[in-house]
Structures are given as C-alpha cells and as structure tokens.
Amino acid sequence: MKILDWYILKRYLGTFFAMILMFVPIGIIVDLSEKVDDILENKVPLDVVLSYYLDFTIYFANLLFPLFVFLSVIWFTSKLANETEIIAFLSSGVSFWRFLRPYMIGAVIICVGALIMGMFLAPRASQGFNDFKYSYIKKGRKVQQTTNIYRQLNENDYLYASNYNPKQKTVTNFTLEHFEENALTYKISARKVTYKDSIYELRDYVKRIISKDGNDIIFRERKKDTLLPFNIDEFTPVTYVAETLNYMELNNFIEKESLRGSSDVNRYKVVAYKRWSIPISAFILTVIGVAVSSMKKRGGMGINLAVGISLAFVFIFFDKVLGTMANQSDFPPLVAVWFPNITFGILAIYLLYNAKR
Question: Bridge partners of 273?
Fold first, then answer.
C-alpha cells in the first residue's frame, strides 16, 4: 500500500480502538454503579464479578460496534478536513475514489473482526452476561415459560406439562402424544418426570396404545426409567437463548423450533440475521462518515459530529423499532434486519456522490 493508505488506515483503526478503550470503561463504571448494591447484598465472589465484566466488555463492544465505527470515521476525517489535509490529498491528483480506498480496507478489517466476534465470541459472552444478571441481579425474574406448557416436538409428537422446574429438571402432570397420519397412535402420561444422567424417570407412568378396533392397550407402572424424544434443556428455552448460540448452533435451533411451531421463531431469526447485517453496516457507516465529514465546514468538527450522531441515532431507531416489530408480530425478520442497511446504503451513495462533486 501507498503512504496515503497507511496514513489513513492507521488513523482509522487507531481512532476506532481508542473509541472502544474510551467508552467500554465508561460503560463498566455506569453498569457497576447500578449493580454494586446487589453485588454486595448477594456476596458475589470477586472472580465471578471479574468474569462478568470480561463478558460485559465483549457484549457491550459488540452491541455498540456500528456506533463506534461511525464516530471514529467522522472524528478523524473531520480532523483531516479541518487541517486541510484532504484538500492537499485531492489537489495532488488523488481521486476521491482513490482517497476512499484505505477507508474500505479498514472497514474490511473491522468487518471481519466483528463477524468473528458476532458468530462465536459474543454468544459466549452473552451467556455469561445473562447468567450473572438472572442469578444475582434479577433473581426470581421469569425468563422462560414454566406453567401450562404445550409444545410440538416434531411432525408426530406433542407434549403438555402443567409445571416445569428448570433448576431441578422436573416436570409435573406430563403428557406425550404420538400421531401418525393425523391419527393418535399412543399416549404417555405421568404425574412427575425427572431428568437425570440422560434418562427420564416417570412416576405413575401410564401408556395407552390406541387400537383402531377400540380395544386400547394400557400399561401402568409406579416408576419407569426410559428415553423420550426431547432434550429437557430445550423444553422451554430462556428468552435470551438465541443470543447465547454460535451461528451454526443458532441455525439448527431455529430449524428445530420452526418444526415445533414455536411462536418465538421470528425473534430467533432476527438474532441470526443480525450476525451478518451488523458487520455489513461497517461499510455503509464508513462511507456515510467519510461523505459527511470530508469537507471543511463552518463550526468545525462540532457540526460533523452533530450530523453524524443524529444519523447514528436514526439508524439505531430504525434497527430497534423494526426488530421489535418482527419479534412481536408477523413482520418479516429479514426485512426488519436489513431495512436500515438498505436505506442507509442508498443514503451513503447519495452523500458520497455529492461529496465527490
């Protein structure tokens, strides 16, 4: 690469990481100030708190990644413009598209890093972040369905339970129905089911095999150990389960939940689509940032930052509102996730064309 490329690339990446190093400690301090009373009251061990804030750092950085990219580009590009360095570059015969190249290289580097983080690191951090929150800060807060559960396991099996205890891995008033060609073939019921060492222990077990001639066969046992066609940990997923799965696990999970007819499939799809849309936003926000801040303006960096922050909040507003619509209605998750990127992509092209002129 040329000297120009290295100069801009180092400023881009340096400012981006400086933004993270500046805002993450602020986020930690704010979060700690809110939770310190609960931490002391629950006597949370120091190593658990430190582990939580390591997860919090990754979770927080991944959550605000697009904003960090956008502010970084606007910040250092505005400084270049105010010091007339951009005019010097362009006056030396460098085209605006050539000037834009190191920004795109930087965006690729950050995009790849964000992709790896979103696919693998952030899910693990999200698991630790949420486990800590619901174990110590929001103890007793309901994060999954535990009463009157009805689920379709696959094309043939349906289950019902009146109560489910995820900590003890027990189910009460359990019923499993198996259908073939839309006809009930057998039904298993039990007063209580306990899961241990991959085996289900059924108390007051009853199995009724449905006969076409009306002479049903009934088996009864006081206690029976057996296998059942479901994993107890997937009985009723916690509300944040999609955030804790890596990309391959998440796709498999969505496929299973779709077959089961889960009402939360849209919520899971939003999380899956964002694993790709957030890194792509690095390119779009980089282009908008360059277009907004590459020209010297009256008012200096303040005007550029004001415009940039306003656009960033509009982007976040669209992302959050449409994501909520997809979670709570039949609004297509793909449209909800990609609409902000497509809209701001068009805006980026328009601003870039005017900036080039």
Answer: none
DSSP code for 262: -
C-alpha–C-alpha distance, residues 312 and 338, integer Å: 16
Among residues 215, 218, 239, 228, which one has the least CA distance to residue 174?
Answer: 228
What is the DSSP track for 275-333? HHHHHHHHHHHHHHHHHHHSS--TTTHHHHHHHHHHHHHHHHHHHHHHHHHHHHSSS-H
User: What are the tens digits of pLDDT across the range 18-72?
Assistant: 999 999 999 999 999 999 999 999 899 999 999 999 999 999 888 888 888 988 9
5 phi/psi in degrees, rounded to 5: -60, -50
Residue 53: phi and psi, rounded to 5, are -75, -20
Specify the pTM. Answer: 0.83
User: With 0-12 CB in 10 A as exposed, 13-18 as middle and 19+ as buried, what is 150?
Assistant: exposed
Residue spans of the domains in the chain: they are: 3-139+263-356, 147-236
Residues in contact with 324: Cβ distance below 8 Å, sequence separation at least 6, in sequence order: none
Q: What's the rounded Cα separation, in Å, for the pair 142 and 292?
A: 45
